[in-house]
Design brief:
The chain is an alpha/beta fold. It is built from 15 helices and 17 strands. The chain is globular. InterPro entries: Gfo/Idh/MocA-like_OxRdtase_N, Gfo/Idh/MocA_oxidrdct_glycsds, GFO_IDH_MocA-like_dom, NAD(P)-bd_dom_sf, TAT_signal, TAT_signal_bac_arc.
Length: 446
């Protein structure tokens, strides 16, 4: 047994990261469980602030709202952290981001502001330690590979690609990063969220017995889109409306629902091996994406997960995950139930001055993941999360392919697929591409 593999029976003795409250909960829930299972998972350090150490200089590639937010999260993770460069395909995005940061008293030198399709290359030539990659996901594999070749630590926003070719490229670059001793943290913030982590510990200790099934769901109103403005070329329109085009965003089963899919993979300890599903388009106004997905994933030993997502206004909304076991079930976030529905365990959130639960974790998971990044760099204990997030992204792609085609799709097919979305060259102007809405039964697996 290696140092990262812990049986459920000796889980408490072997991990030094369980808090006092967690020890009580684990002891209570696992004392009667005589089964043992191997647990191979590297838990993040749940610090309130990264330790002091060498000054770290970061550059941001992708200056939209998520990129700007990620940059601020990085700066909030500890002391002596600096954002020193910006890059985006659009000049106005760069200056808008710079202005927002300036209001936070973060002044990016104009000489370190770059725009255009090759702006990331100019940014990587600056004096940097860390690169934050937050462009539309289509560009992530290319940018990630360039950042690793430049020997930079990376924060990699999810999803990490939009097609099987990109997923395999991320996996390969992940191995390069490991061999080079770099740290790569991804934007799967639930894996850095204290209540999710503690619930995972409980489940790993045997709190709900053997895992049998799961469901993942993200149903919400329609998100942002942009209509075409006069003077915009094909490429500019798609880039400014990237959330509506599959080649840029991967459809929302990747863009948002990948979070829930990743949680199921995490708790199950593996990815599914096949998928069957459906989806459709009802009310979207732009692009070529679906409005809803419903996918059944099957794992290697017959366990299954139902994954469903929707983005339509005026409907009932819900968000989350559920894992079923032979002795109970959990919402993955903060509660474990007996099979009869009674509560077996709940996460102990911090309390306010009146002694009441705040219902929120002490540190935002969006900041916690950057604390992990900075801690790994400063303690010289590299962590690379890119491959596991590529696996979760490819799981979502497998579900998307099943829905688009109406066919059963296997993991083996995804790992061999030649599907690569997007144009052959990147330049502003007309784009020789067609964007038909996928019709199940008429599409083919690439």
């Amino acid at each position: 047994m290696n140092k990262n593999q812990l049986s459920r029976r000796n889980f408490l003795e072997k991990t030094a990261l369980v808090g006092a409250a967690g020890v009580v909960g684990l002891s209570a829930l696992s004392s009667c469980n005589k089964k043992t299972q191997e647990v191979d998972y590297e838990f993040p350090p749940l610090l309130d602030l990264a330790p002091d150490g060498k000054t770290l200089r970061a550059g941001l590639v992708g200056c939209g709202n998520r990129g700007t937010g990620a940059a601020l999260n990085f700066l909030a993770a500890g002391n002596d952290l600096h954002l020193v460069a910006l890059a985006d395909v659009f000049e106005d995005k760069v200056w808008d981001c710079r202005d927002k940061l300036l209001k936070q008293r973060i002044d990016i030198p104009e000489k370190n502001c770059f725009w255009g399709f090759d702006a990331y290359k100019s940014l990587l030539e600056a004096d940097l330690d860390v690169v934050i990659l937050a462009t539309p996901p289509h560009f992530r594999p290319m940018h990630f590979d360039a950042a690793v070749q430049a020997k930079k630590h990376v924060f990699l926003e999810k999803p990490v690609c939009v097609d099987p070719v990109g997923a395999r490229q991320i996996m390969a670059t992940s191995k390069k990063a490991e061999n080079m001793g770099l740290t790569v943290i991804t934007g799967t913030q639930r894996r850095h969220q204290r209540d999710y982590i503690e619930t995972y510990r409980q489940v790993a200790s045997g709190a709900i017995g053997e895992l049998t099934s799961a469901k993942a769901f993200w149903m919400q109103s329609h998100v942002w889109f942009r209509t075409r403005e006069e003077g915009w070329s094909d490429m500019e329109y798609m880039l400014r409306n990237w959330n509506s085009f599959c080649w840029l965003g991967g459809d929302f089963i990747l863009d948002t629902h990948v979070h829930n899919i990743d949680v199921v993979n995490w708790f199950m300890g593996k990815h599914p091996v096949e998928a069957v599903g459906f989806g459709g388009r009802a009310r979207r106004l732009t692009g070529d994406q679906y409005d809803f997905f419903s996918v059944d994933f099957e794992f290697d030993k017959g366990e299954f997960s139902h994954s469903f997502a929707r983005q339509i206004d005026g409907c009932a909304n819900q968000l989350g995950e559920r894992i079923m076991g032979t002795e109970g079930y959990t919402n993955c976030k903060n509660t474990i139930y007996n099979l009869d529905g009674s509560v077996k365990w709940t996460y102990d959130y911090p309390k306010n001055k009146d002694g009441r639960s705040t219902g929120v974790v002490k540190v935002s998971p969006y900041v916690q993941e950057h604390i992990h990044l900075v801690t790994a760099i400063r303690t010289n204990k590299p962590v690379v999360e890119a491959e596991r997030t590529a696996i979760s992204t490819l799981t979502a792609i497998m579900g998307r392919t099943a829905a688009y085609t109406g066919q059963k799709v296997t993991w083996e097919e995804m790992m061999k697929s030649t599907e690569k979305l997007g144009p052959d060259t990147y330049e502003m102007g007309p784009v020789d591409m067609e964007f038909p809405i996928p019709v199940p039964g008429t599409q083919h697996k690439a």
